[in-house]
Amino acid sequence: MHELSLCAELLRLIEAQSRRQHFRRVHAVRLEVGALAGVETEALQFGFTVAANGTVAEGARLDILPLPGRAQCRACGDTVEIESYGEPCPRCGGYFLRVCGGTELRIKELEVE
Fold it and tell me: Is residue 17 part of a domain?
């Protein structure tokens, strides 16, 4: 379950920002997660709760903001939404897609005190 290691890194970043910006507690973390990021959001929620124990984010809410997968079709030229790698273009049925969005995993916002 790589989500737990992602949570550990997420909390390392939050702790570093806590020291840099002098906040004592995190109430909420808003995390953008792309559909193509390869992250199981339920496992991420669970891992965050476990990993946050003893940190400035203990008891914080993790709000996951889903981002769609996006790709440009080389056959028809359209930019389309996709749910997973390997699926055809929903417009023309072609398989020559170049992913151009939806791989993100980033902190969008922290609610702190």
Answer: yes
User: Does 55 fall in a domain?
Assistant: yes
Q: Phi/psi at 12 (nearest 5 deg)?
A: -60, -40
Is the residue at 107 inside a domain?
A: yes
Detail the DSSP E strand segments found in 35-113.
61-67, 69-73, 79-82, 97-101, 105-112
pLDDT of 1-10, one tens digit each?
589 899 999 9
Tokens of 34: 């792309």
Residue 21 CA neighbour count, 13 Å, CB half: 15
Number of domains, the chain: 1
